[in-house]
Amino acid sequence: MVMPKLTVSNYPEMLRKLSTATFFVTIGCLVILRTVEPIDGALKHLDVFTPAIPIFGSVKIPFGTFLIAFVVAAVSESIRLHNKISDVFRIRSEFDLRWILIPMALLSAVVLTSAQFEKLRIEKRRLVNEVFYAYASSTAGRQVIDPHLITQALTTWSWYWLCAEAIAIIIPTAAILAFWSQFQWVSGLLTTVLVLMLVMRVFRADCSMYAEAQVREILSDNGRRQRVVAIFNAL
Questions:
Q1: Quick one: DSSP state of residue 3?
Q2: C-alpha distances in angstroms, 137 versus 101, 144, 163?
């Protein structure tokens, strides 16, 4: 199995990292679920189709476990699970407003009226593309600011979303185990969720730091600053 890069420099690399992590998290959850006899018995109907699948050298997993983990990983990538999580909890929406658009307006000395600020909130997706991602894109050939800053930010976001997707798999697993009264596993999984949430706060703080650095570099060029000011003033 070819492992994805831990440090990612573009969006496709991040998606591969997330789907691979989701695959292994799902395998871990299925291993625990299969300690419940009825669940293991049901999955054994899939195991008979092919011998155990090698994933690392001599390490093999039953076909039923592999198949379900593969499907979960494929679906999570195809539907952009991290984006769905972000939309539900307004993670990127609030981040873009608080750590990108408002700082850009302040640092570029733009004075927004209350009506303009409200329009900024409503149109933040368009605005963040025009004043930020136009210069901080991870797409090769479109990078205007220091690519190292972009890589640092994207890598940190990838770890943040990895934790979020893991939680999205672990919580249903804990619910299923609770249904079967496997509370020793439930407590362990919920503790894992709590730890992941704390780790996410650390990554979120780092994302804020990298966003500030990118904003400052964008505005360090007078031409870019003037274009940003013009976009804000047009609100």
A1: P
A2: 16, 8, 23
Instruction: Output the pLDDT for position 58.
Output: 82
Residue in the block written with tokens 């972000």: 86
Q: Where are the domains of the chain?
A: 11-233
Whether residue 5 contacts residue 143, with contact meaning beta carbons closer than 8 Å, is answered with no
pLDDT higher than 60, residue 157 = yes
Tokens 């539900």 — which residue?
Answer: 88
Helix 63-78 to helix 37-47 angle, to the nearest 10 degrees?
90
Question: In the chain, which ranges are continuous DSSP H helix?
Answer: 11-33, 37-47, 63-78, 81-89, 91-95, 102-107, 114-122, 124-128, 147-179, 183-219, 222-233
C-alpha dihedral (235, 106, 200, 153), degrees to nearest 10: 90
Please tell me whether residue 149 adopts helix, strand or coil conformation. helix
Distance CA 96, CA 32 (A): 38
What's the CA gap between 235 and 113, in Å, rounded? 9
If you average pLDDT over every residue of the chain, what do you get? Answer: 94
Q: What is the pLDDT of residue 140?
A: 76
Q: CB atoms < 10 A from the CB of 161, how many? A: 25
pLDDT confidence of 101, banded at 50, 70, 90? very high
